[in-house]
TrEMBL record:
<dbReference type="GO" id="GO:0008194">
    <property type="term" value="F:UDP-glycosyltransferase activity"/>
</dbReference>
<dbReference type="Pfam" id="PF06722">
    <property type="entry name" value="EryCIII-like_C"/>
</dbReference>
<dbReference type="InterPro" id="IPR048284">
    <property type="entry name" value="EryCIII-like_N"/>
</dbReference>
<feature type="domain" description="Erythromycin biosynthesis protein CIII-like C-terminal">
    <location>
        <begin position="229"/>
        <end position="368"/>
    </location>
</feature>
<comment type="similarity">
    <text>Belongs to the glycosyltransferase 28 family.</text>
</comment>
<dbReference type="GO" id="GO:0017000">
    <property type="term" value="P:antibiotic biosynthetic process"/>
</dbReference>
<protein>
    <submittedName>
        <fullName>UDP:flavonoid glycosyltransferase YjiC, YdhE family</fullName>
    </submittedName>
</protein>
<keyword id="KW-0328">Glycosyltransferase</keyword>
<dbReference type="InterPro" id="IPR050426">
    <property type="entry name" value="Glycosyltransferase_28"/>
</dbReference>
<feature type="domain" description="Erythromycin biosynthesis protein CIII-like N-terminal">
    <location>
        <begin position="22"/>
        <end position="215"/>
    </location>
</feature>
<dbReference type="GO" id="GO:0016758">
    <property type="term" value="F:hexosyltransferase activity"/>
</dbReference>
<dbReference type="InterPro" id="IPR010610">
    <property type="entry name" value="EryCIII-like_C"/>
</dbReference>
<keyword id="KW-0808">Transferase</keyword>
<dbReference type="Pfam" id="PF21036">
    <property type="entry name" value="EryCIII-like_N"/>
</dbReference>
<dbReference type="InterPro" id="IPR002213">
    <property type="entry name" value="UDP_glucos_trans"/>
</dbReference>
Amino acid sequence: MRVLFLSTPLASHLYPMVPLAWALRAAGHDVAVATTGPALSVASSGLDVIDFDPEGRCPSLAQINATRPDIVARRATRIDDGMVLLIEATRQYVDRMIEVAGRWRPDLVVHSQLQGGGPLAAATLGVPAVEHGASLLRTGDFYERLDQLIPETFEAYGLTGLPPRRALLDVAPPSMVVGRPDAWPMRYVPYNGGGVLPVDLTVPTDRPRVAVTIGTNIMAPNMAQLLSRLYAAAAGVDAEFVVLLSGIDAAADDAPDNVRVVREWLPLRALLGTCGLIVHHGGAGSILAALDAGVAQLVVPSGAPSYIQADAVRERGVGVTATAEEVDAELLRRALDDEKLRAAAAEVRDEMAGMPPPAAVVSRLVELAS
């Protein structure tokens, strides 16, 4: 079976699909990944990668988001709040996805969450499409509305609807989301890219360790304020703070002695194994990695979808949420010492560990494509 993975060009959208791609390849299937821009870094995973925009004519996701800063900064409560940007992210890449699918001729298309180019590429070939969930977000009727939202694409390719054979792989822990009865549950296996983990970060220290990340900064407009508040607060907490700033232009001159700034790429999940808390911006990768590790979270949401996911973290009791202005030493100490947070995080970790791993889903995908 030939399986083509199509992704929005952002590592945080593509990396969650890597373990399934590995599982398919280990089972003897032909696998290729098609994306562009910063997501091409997935080539370090050992997968075959096709750049569907080698000339760089398509705008990056950061450029798309920059056209509507009002939407990015909005406190979203549902997917529809960001629909303008979601549709633009489909419109900008759909032609390239259809082109590469037509050349590679897969038997099955697996696509990133909320990327309409995937099912439309599959529809042009008459093959099944599978959405690979990568967050706590619910897609609602996004795909069913594509013919109304981008009718020009349907007309250009003579499409009358979505592929008749479709599936959804849901990696979200059931206790944190409203599930869909037709979804296939699959365990979230963190893949954060390769990196060299300093040996001293592989073992716990005498005092608590706190991981800090703001992800790729695509959806973190309050980054500078959050880091400034964190540095000021960290000085009053008896803990080691490891701040991950790989690829991010952010000053750290005011970081106190107990804050370690890491500018090299470092696998987040590996670091979390020695941490008692993670402070982050509400990105899906940070949330799911922390849940997989059973680590309590302090979420400072920044960017429309992160508010939806931060609410889910708070409601499940695996973390607390705050604004950047509310981050202080007392809040950090309370999050570190809260036994209820740790207990809830351990419960969700065990819940996720009991979900079917990617290798167990391969046979269902083969059946879908048969």
